[in-house]
Amino acid sequence: MKAEKRILQLRVAGAVSAALWVSLAGGALAAVSEQEAAKLGKELTPVGAERAANKDGSIPEWKGGVAKGKLKLGDARSDPFAADKPLFSIDASNVDKYKDKLSAGQIELLKTRKGYRMDVYPTQRSCGYPDSVNEQTRKNATFAKLTTDNKDNLAQAVGGGFPFAIPKNGAEAVYNHRQRWQGEGRHEYYSTNFINPDGSFYGLFQDQFTLMPFASAKAKSLDDVGDAQMKIFNLAISPASRVGEIILAHYFFNKSTDAWMYFPGQRRVRRLPAFDYDNPIPGYENLETADQYPMFAGALDRYDWKLAGKQEMYIPYNNFKFVAKGKIGDIYQGLYPKRDLMRYELHRVWKVEASVKQGQRHMFAKRTFYLDEDTWMIMEADQFDAQGKLWRVMEASIYPAVELGACVSQEFMSWDLTVNRYMAENATQESKATDWLAGAEGRIDAKRFESDELRRSGER
User: Fold this and answer.
1) What is the mean pLDDT of the segment spanning 123-141?
2) Are 353 and 309 in contact (CB under 8 A)?
3) How far is CA 137 from its chain centroid?
């Protein structure tokens, strides 16, 4: 009997070990415990930021952010912090004094771009989210998981909230950026500007619809949205040489991006063979890769992701002056955007380091991302080549959209240090207002994002 009992114990142990091996090889990482999740809404904000002020009070306590309000489409966006004055400025003369609160890219721009400066204002923690987003984020805390098949895919989550409010690794933090809540969709007019050092620029004006299927709380699983994270329908409206071009892109959580392009001169739709990783975006003068938009998108499987910790950092925040209406040529100038329009504040950020995995390839051998703790948005990103040299520097801006009850990030810049140029992406200053949609159902035609509809859309 003892021998039989021992055999049974060994079989059970073997079965448990086998199950554990399967889980580690291709299953899912465990979510946080109920005890950890209980911190959300208490010492942590509902989406995982530290609620308390920092030691010297230069970062204040989070008190819910700017309240939701009404704003008619096309109305000027009022700045609740317009009376704030700069505390100090950082430039080439004093950059070393503040280097512990700057990224490598910020330091490079300050030291090498004559006249570049960062005006630092009082910190305003203006970003909060609707109750529905907070509720879905709480559900995800003990439910959302990544796979452990060395691809860092999203194994399970519910929609309408952040998947990993208490991240355990860099991949989880970056998924929060990918699934940042800015409503379920939007309709926007914007320009992508390619600026030369002498101030001359080429502007591509676009009419874009964006759908975020998994931003809806109705999505109970990835299957409910066909694994889709983001769908983009982009129509070129200027200059004349590009009018009528359409790019349709479907970004997924667990597979490569699908993309199609409509060429009006040929009246043909072509499927793009590669619209992910470091493949260049068509017509963007080799200044932006597919996974640089917006700041980072697409698959994570080519990198090892390290959560390097939290730090205090000066980042663009509450940039109402920057996004206000104005002339593109007055805002985006020779080596950088007009500095009088930019507002920087001290905030806590998560630092994530991505290094190309052994056996994989990417033109950026290493990338460093800085995510704002209150929104999970990537605000600064540095891209390095295989020799460890800084190659591209990216910076986003952020402001609360009161009609949505959440903060949004739209405009961002990307400097290519090797060619001494930069591009300004999603620039809305010379365009119509953006329609941020808390609920996209019935307001954005889902058929617009079907490849079969692409040619018909181009001929309308």
Assistant:
1) 98
2) no
3) 17
